[in-house]
Amino acid sequence: MSNLPNCPKCNSEYTYEDGNLLVCPECAHEWAPVSEQENTEETKVVRDSNGNVLNDGDTVTVIKDLKVKGSSLVVKQGTKVKNIRLIDGDHDIDCKIDSLGAMKLKSEFVKKI
After folding, report:
1. Answer CATH for 59-112 from 3.40.718.10, 1.10.287.3510, 2.30.30.40, 3.40.50.720
2. Which end of the chain is less crowded, N or C, counting CB atoms within 10 A of the terminal residue's CB?
């Protein structure tokens, strides 16, 4: 008998391999084996302008004047931003700047303190 796992959706024991996926003939559920899922998961590392790794809760400083899109406001160079949150997307830092409010920044324009 094969040592393939049961279907995680319907618990059927009649699973089979199709290429690099496992397939359940009863519910048509397809999934990758556990060892392949671990290899495909990537943890995104966010780095500041100097190459330091950023984490949630870090404090950073803005390295150049940044215009705020849609308004005449400017985030000045040297502005300290506390308690950042890392998010997915082009602007990978979500934060709250005291004088301006909620803001999203690109990590290439900040440096870790």
Report:
1. 2.30.30.40
2. N
